[in-house]
Amino acid sequence: QWQQVRSQLRAEVGDTAYGTWLKPLDLNELDGDRVVITVPTQFMRDWVVAHYADRIRTIWAGLNPAVRSIALNVRPAGAPAPAAPPPEPAPAAVAPEPRSEAVDGTLDDLGARLDPRFTFESFVVGKPNEFAVAAAEKVATSPKPAFNPLFLYGGVGLGKTHLMHAIAWRLKQCDPSRRVVYLSAEKFMYQFIRALRSKDTMSFKELFRSTDVLMVDDVQFISGKDSTQEEFFHTFNALIDRGRQIVISADRSPSDLNGLEERIRSRLAWGLVADIHPTTYELRLGILQSKAEQLAVDIPLRVIEFLASRITSNVRELEGALNRIVHHSTLSKRPISIEVAQDVLKDVLRAADRRVTIEEIQKAVVDHFGVKLADMSSARRARAVARPRQVAMYLAKQLTPRSLPEIGRKFGGRDHTTVMHAVRQIEKLSAEDPQLADDLEVVRRKLQA
Ligand code: ADP
Ligand code: MG
């Protein structure tokens, strides 16, 4: 009977959740109307009671109406335990930690180190990021949660990690007694999995819940990772309930975090959502000037302008380009000039020039599918034009750093949910339809040639 209950549970909750939470349960006693199930740890017991107890009861009652009560007890230490299930499909993407840390260590072990260069003082503010910076400063200087959570999002290399470190430094400065933990979502997952393996989720949970400010970077990483998502969500709720501040970053908005449960997505958007937009020419100029100052090198304004106009992708690439020029000129003892810049950055500039625009994508799609350019922005809904339009939106999302609203604007002022829908639709269809997958590949190759 217990086997039947188990296999039914497994079918209902899926292999991952089953392996993590239900497989370790043991039937300890079946005595007339009373069932006693044992669980390895208190943490698991709480979890199972909260999430699965009703199902277990119902299934059991269906199989054996005599059963009246079901008790879940924590297995005493030393009692035989089943082999630990792998909590997730092999976490291949998880880099090995440099040193071994115990989960039952201190809060310092929990977080990642903060980069001393990433402060508010070194962060250059401009139109694209001023809102995010203001929100970050507010959180960093308020003794009580200002908005909970603060959700920062933006494309790669636009300063999310920098801003999070800046918040952490400022918080520590304002009140050194506050327990601030900053870590990547990847590290969160890694620690959680390790706690599961060592059956020590209790101290994992307690440690996280004892923080005053929890900052989790790149939360998109836990998309699709079900049990990590669950644990993250519970930690999140527990902290919010206790009035602790939470700061989250991601490469996209909460509503665009596919692979994250709906209730988590909506909860993430409860506080303040602040996005960091792609850089403008002015901001790039400002950042280059500030970096040149930090490096204590004189760089002709013309070179700075040249870089700001040519390297537009993100701040990380911009910094990298500047560093290369400075190194090169120091080594070769050539003064910095546009010629030197062109020479040193040949590859980067060529790549930057090759970067595809939305207009080029539209043109390539129109050519390939034999529709009119006007159809890209028209309101026509006939499949023959709507599908190519969706393909173009999809490719725009894939191949350019443009945001959903920006893409929507280039397609006759459609709003970002329409673009999102197109992206999802094409993702789904191309997985099922080899002809469409082929079309995508052809257009993509033509654009990137
Ligand atoms: P993200 O986490 O969004 O991918 P990072 O925070 O790692 O980006 O930023 C990439 C690099 O660009 C870092 O070295 C950071 O210091 C720098 N950077 C980004 N935005 C700014 C800015 N507004 N002012 C100064 N430096 C910036
Ligand atoms: Mg980052």
From TrEMBL:
<dbReference type="InterPro" id="IPR010921">
    <property type="entry name" value="Trp_repressor/repl_initiator"/>
</dbReference>
<dbReference type="Pfam" id="PF00308">
    <property type="entry name" value="Bac_DnaA"/>
</dbReference>
<dbReference type="InterPro" id="IPR001957">
    <property type="entry name" value="Chromosome_initiator_DnaA"/>
</dbReference>
<dbReference type="InterPro" id="IPR013159">
    <property type="entry name" value="DnaA_C"/>
</dbReference>
<comment type="similarity">
    <text>Belongs to the DnaA family.</text>
</comment>
<feature type="binding site">
    <location>
        <position position="161"/>
    </location>
    <ligand>
        <name>ATP</name>
    </ligand>
</feature>
<comment type="subunit">
    <text>Oligomerizes as a right-handed, spiral filament on DNA at oriC.</text>
</comment>
<dbReference type="GO" id="GO:0006275">
    <property type="term" value="P:regulation of DNA replication"/>
</dbReference>
<dbReference type="InterPro" id="IPR003593">
    <property type="entry name" value="AAA+_ATPase"/>
</dbReference>
<dbReference type="InterPro" id="IPR027417">
    <property type="entry name" value="P-loop_NTPase"/>
</dbReference>
<keyword id="KW-0067">ATP-binding</keyword>
<keyword id="KW-0446">Lipid-binding</keyword>
<protein>
    <recommendedName>
        <fullName>Chromosomal replication initiator protein DnaA</fullName>
    </recommendedName>
</protein>
<dbReference type="GO" id="GO:0005524">
    <property type="term" value="F:ATP binding"/>
</dbReference>
<keyword id="KW-0547">Nucleotide-binding</keyword>
<feature type="binding site">
    <location>
        <position position="157"/>
    </location>
    <ligand>
        <name>ATP</name>
    </ligand>
</feature>
<keyword id="KW-0238">DNA-binding</keyword>
<dbReference type="GO" id="GO:0008289">
    <property type="term" value="F:lipid binding"/>
</dbReference>
<feature type="binding site">
    <location>
        <position position="160"/>
    </location>
    <ligand>
        <name>ATP</name>
    </ligand>
</feature>
<feature type="domain" description="Chromosomal replication initiator DnaA C-terminal">
    <location>
        <begin position="357"/>
        <end position="426"/>
    </location>
</feature>
<dbReference type="InterPro" id="IPR020591">
    <property type="entry name" value="Chromosome_initiator_DnaA-like"/>
</dbReference>
<dbReference type="Pfam" id="PF11638">
    <property type="entry name" value="DnaA_N"/>
</dbReference>
<feature type="region of interest" description="Domain I, interacts with DnaA modulators">
    <location>
        <begin position="1"/>
        <end position="84"/>
    </location>
</feature>
<dbReference type="Pfam" id="PF08299">
    <property type="entry name" value="Bac_DnaA_C"/>
</dbReference>
<feature type="region of interest" description="Domain III, AAA+ region">
    <location>
        <begin position="113"/>
        <end position="329"/>
    </location>
</feature>
<feature type="region of interest" description="Domain IV, binds dsDNA">
    <location>
        <begin position="330"/>
        <end position="449"/>
    </location>
</feature>
<dbReference type="GO" id="GO:0005886">
    <property type="term" value="C:plasma membrane"/>
</dbReference>
<feature type="domain" description="AAA+ ATPase">
    <location>
        <begin position="146"/>
        <end position="274"/>
    </location>
</feature>
<dbReference type="InterPro" id="IPR013317">
    <property type="entry name" value="DnaA_dom"/>
</dbReference>
<dbReference type="InterPro" id="IPR024633">
    <property type="entry name" value="DnaA_N_dom"/>
</dbReference>
<dbReference type="InterPro" id="IPR038454">
    <property type="entry name" value="DnaA_N_sf"/>
</dbReference>
<keyword id="KW-0235">DNA replication</keyword>
<dbReference type="InterPro" id="IPR018312">
    <property type="entry name" value="Chromosome_initiator_DnaA_CS"/>
</dbReference>
<dbReference type="GO" id="GO:0003688">
    <property type="term" value="F:DNA replication origin binding"/>
</dbReference>
<feature type="binding site">
    <location>
        <position position="159"/>
    </location>
    <ligand>
        <name>ATP</name>
    </ligand>
</feature>
<feature type="region of interest" description="Disordered">
    <location>
        <begin position="77"/>
        <end position="100"/>
    </location>
</feature>
<dbReference type="GO" id="GO:0006270">
    <property type="term" value="P:DNA replication initiation"/>
</dbReference>
<dbReference type="GO" id="GO:0005737">
    <property type="term" value="C:cytoplasm"/>
</dbReference>
<keyword id="KW-0963">Cytoplasm</keyword>
<comment type="function">
    <text>Plays an essential role in the initiation and regulation of chromosomal replication. ATP-DnaA binds to the origin of replication (oriC) to initiate formation of the DNA replication initiation complex once per cell cycle. Binds the DnaA box (a 9 base pair repeat at the origin) and separates the double-stranded (ds)DNA. Forms a right-handed helical filament on oriC DNA; dsDNA binds to the exterior of the filament while single-stranded (ss)DNA is stabiized in the filament's interior.</text>
</comment>
